[in-house]
Amino acid sequence: MSKVKLAKAIYKDTVICEEVELADNWYRRLMGLMFRKTMAECHGLLLDPCNSIHTFNMKFNIDTIYLDRDDVIVHLDADIPKGKIRPFVKNSQKVLEINAGLIAKYQLQLGEKISIINSNN
Asked: What pTM did the predictor assign?
């Protein structure tokens, strides 16, 4: 398996995730956050391409940010518990999974852009 690609997620000049794992292949999207016990607050997972998620085999609640091809927020889903399937989101190209509570903490809004800045060279 190749090295995990990392990025930063920035919203309105504020870094909301210092380390975003890029799940940009079939296996990484399949595994997602399953079986992990926790995730640091500064960490996230970007599923690309993706327009729906599930939380089976997860150990903690998450917030999800659905982004279009230009990284504009098209849907927000807060505090999703384990064992759920979320509906497909029209116009979603990517989903950023973050710790529960961060949508509220950063006051994320529909129609705003999240900048995904690649950290790998």
From this structure: 0.92
